[in-house]
Amino acid sequence: MSLLQVESLSKEFGGVHAVEDLTFTVEPGHIHSIIGPNGAGKTTLFNLITGVYTPSAGRVLFQDRMVSGMKPYELAAMGMSRTFQNLQIFFNMKAIENVMVGNHLQLNRSFLPSFLRLPGVVKGDRACVETCVELMEFVGLGKYLDADAASMPYGALKRLEVARALAAKPKILLLDEPAAGLNATESREIDEVIKRVAASGITVVLVEHDMKMVMGISDHITALDYGRKLAEGTPAEVRANPDVIKAYLGAHA
Amino acid sequence: MNMMTPRTGGLALLAVIITVAPIGFTNTYFYDVAVNAMFNAILCIGLNLLIGYAGQISLGHAGFLALGAYGSAIMTTAYGVPPIAAMLISATVVGLIAFVVGRPILKLKGHYLAMATLGIGIIIHIVLKTESKITGGPDGMSLDNFSMLGFTIMGDKMWYWVAGVLLILSAWLALNLIDSPVGRALRAVHGSEVGAEVVGVDTSSYKVLVFVVSAVFASLVGSLFAHKNGFITPDIGSFFGSVHLVTMVVLGGMASVFGSVIGAVILTLLPQVLAAVEQYEAMILGGIMMGTMIFMPKGLLPSILASLKRREAGR
């Protein structure tokens, strides 16, 4: 059974169709990439899937449950987590605290125990720190364990978002341009991280412009243009599709 | 755990200062000012949870302070409710009011939220001023000492020790909260609401929660202040009162528990210190504020700590 089903999804912004009548499914365990030129509607699609936007029409099913209209935090509780193209880091906190917020749903969140610092909360936080240290090391941020988020370089912050999303223990992880703005080395590192995430059993949906990365790690690709589906299939199929070549790589190809 | 962490080192230092300070108090007037400073500090610790940590502004918290004060005054004088019960009932009602108004207005951000909270403060102030049958109107109300279980808090000296213990308790509770799952969620709301939402933080509920907590802090302080002073007027809930509170938080340092204490102490003492040059008081106050905003926008304590850290790193 598909983990995520997008059915005839549309989103309109003042007459402009950012996403139009889009249908596709994401299979569990896959790395599923969404590609398309700038303005094709990829980030809008992510915002629709994760509950940041409400669709104008159509619906999204996650684990066979209709989730359109649900809030992002409700989806997070169901096992959906994401990162952002433009960073949404908590710059007022330490790096590890960013990851610990990701662990929010796994912790005792009642007010009074926190206010009185009851032993259960202290114990929970101690375990949470351990988990988050592991996650930071997993994404290659071992040397930033004591850092303030505000003092970290861009490439590290990209990975910090991945660690925070993983701390939420997702079944599906949506990565919005994780390699954007990274140099070749950093890009290869994040590529490795994504492969390791997928290998740990988490389904990955990836929006990315780095074609080398997309073709190299994807199991399945959906290509968009002007909010509509242009093509889909394995990397080899999509690469050979004339529409994709025309829209994405230029009309002369 | 390190002795210099805010939890242990800061709380210990605060306790020492509170214990030692009376050595320099030559008459009861010193105690009176010190109690007011500590009451303001407690209120600002609560307000800083909202403003500094969760990143939500309120220009109406003097209103909640006044509601606590009047709740205690009305219940104890007109209905003979014991002071402790009156204080707790007032705080519960204020918490409920904050919950009811907080849900819609905390959807607003920045200037819009500032305007809405300003409105709350003004409404409370006007109601207290005009409902003179219950509140005594602009003339104010007087009320009795705070007594509980046959024990009465009387005189500035006794109030000093009560306020001191409550201040340490408040600082401890606030520090607990900040460094807990709830506190991290609050700070995450400040950092990025959408970033917090996608990992499972129900940001609207947390904003309402911290608004209620800060309003309850204000209400409790209001009740205590009313009993200690023995007399209150609606002007404790004025717009200027709210601005004064926010100024204490900002001056001392946003997102700093001990910064709130410092801000509250400085702005409570300043009028006393400047009494000799009374005609210039407002100007000096304004100058200090402008200087803080320009030269240390993060507030006194965070700026000082940051420069100490830099010096240490430079060695």
Number of strands of chain A: 10
Largest sheet of chain A: 6 strands, mixed
Mean pLDDT of chain B: 92
Structural class of chain B: mainly alpha
Question: Globular, elongated, flat, extended or rod-shaped: what is the shape of chain A?
Answer: globular
Low-confidence stretches of chain B: none
Mean pLDDT of chain A: 93
Strand order of the largest sheet of chain A: 6-7-8-3-9-10
Count of separate structural domains of chain A = 2
Number of helices of chain A: 10
**Strand arrangement in the largest pleated sheet of chain B:** 1-4
Number of strands of chain B: 4
Give the second-level CATH assignment, the architecture of the largest domain in chain A: 3-Layer(aba) Sandwich
Q: What ranges of chain A have pLDDT less than 50 throughout 5 or more consecutive residues?
A: none
Helical content band of chain A: 25-40%
Oligomer: heterodimer
Distance between the ends of chain A: 38 Å
Query: How much strand content do the residues of chain A show?
Result: 15-25%
Query: What fraction strand of chain B?
Result: under 5%
Task: Give a structural overview.
The complex is a heterodimer of chains A (253) and B (315). By secondary structure, chain A is of the alpha/beta class. Chain A has helices spanning 42-49, 72-78, 95-102, 111-116, 119-138, 154-167, 184-199, 211-217, 235-240, 242-249, and strands spanning 4-13, 16-26, 31-35, 57-62, 65-66, 80-82, 172-176, 203-207, 220-225, 228-233. Chain A has two domains: 1-79 and 170-253, P-loop containing nucleotide triphosphate hydrolases (Rossmann fold, 3-Layer(aba) Sandwich); 88-169, P-loop containing nucleotide triphosphate hydrolases (Rossmann fold), CATH 3.40.50.300. Chain A is 40% helix and 23% strand. In chain A, the strands form two sheets. A six-stranded mixed sheet of chain A has the order 6-7-8-3-9-10, sandwiched between helices. In chain A, a hairpin with a 2-residue loop joins strand 1 (4-13) and strand 2. The longest helix of chain A is centred in the middle third of the chain and has 20 residues, at 119-138. Helices cover 75% and strands 3% of the residues of chain B. The model of chain B has no long low-confidence stretch (mean pLDDT 92). The chains are: A alpha/beta (253), B mainly alpha (315). Chain A binds chain B through residues 50-52, 71-73, 75-77, 81-82, 84, 88-93, 97-98, 100-102, 104-105, 107-111, 113-117, 121, 124-125, 128, 161, 164-165, 167-168, and chain B through 55, 173, 176-177, 179-185, 187-188, 190-192, 194-203, 209, 255.
